[in-house]
Amino acid sequence: MLADNYQAITSGKIKGPEIDAPIIAVVSCVERVLITFSEQYTDSNIKIEKGLTQKLIHLIALHALKKHYPFYFQKEYMEDPERGDSPQVDIGVISTSKEGIIIGVKPYEGESFFSIEAKRLAELGSKRSKEYLVGRTEKNKYISCGGVERFKQGIHGRGLPFGAIIGFVQEYDFDDWYGLLNSWIEDLIQKNIYSPVTWHVKDKLKKDYIRSSTAKFISLTSRKNDCITLFHLWVRLN
Fold first, then answer.
1. What are 136-165's pLDDT values in tens digits?
2. What span, in angstroms and rounded, lies between the C-alpha atoms of 156 and 88?
3. Which of 35, 113, 8, 18 is nearest to 69 (CA)?
4. N or C: lower Cβ tally within 10 Å for the chain?
């Protein structure tokens, strides 16, 4: 099963580091839960990002436990536990094994080996509509709250080769957002939209699949000195 998923992910649509089996397992776990999440929360009254994320984590935790995955999902994972003001990613994925999990050549014991951020894809035209990608300016101060941007800055997933962003689609459809986000990334490349980091063509999303209730895209997202492969896992809630 993991080998089949690996072939689908690495089918030539994007080139990046070899994807380790634990990463494939995490992505597969989340993909399956998103189908159930769509069934349960389509047209939900929950319009708050944190509320949707909380409900999703509950379902993911139950599924991971039931299927005996060798990892668990921790809500609001501190990226640097030694700092009282540490940024927190929405979900950290941690090994349940005493030996930890090896990604590439690095062992991860008691620390997250995969960071997941969650963003609503809704309210097109509002000041927060681009937060899947970039932050916003309020009272002449830039707030770095953009999902992809925080991975690019190393605020989330620092040093990790893989991560993910979950998109809660509550307005329009997958194709609409796919086109919009890539057009906004092109504007970021051309510097027609402000961002404190540099954007490149490889930051654009590449389509893996679009289905009735879920969709998956992949990007080789640039950081200052390297890249992180991001899985963009979207769920239809409208």
1. 988 889 988 999 999 999 999 999 999 999
2. 8
3. 113
4. N
Contact 146, 221 (CB under 8 A): no
First-to-last alpha carbon distance for the chain, in angstroms, is 30
- Domains of the chain with bracketed CATH: 2-236 (3.40.91)
- Characterise 129 by phi-psi region: left (phi > 0), alpha (psi -120 to 50), beta (else): alpha
The two three-digit tokens of residue 127, written as one number = 């000041």
* Residue that wins the pLDDT comparison between 154 and 81: 154
| Strand blocks (E) in the chain | 71-78, 88-95, 101-103, 106-108, 114-121, 136-138, 141-143, 162-169, 206-210, 214-222, 227-236
Give which of 68, 164, 159 is closest to 111, Cα–Cα: 159
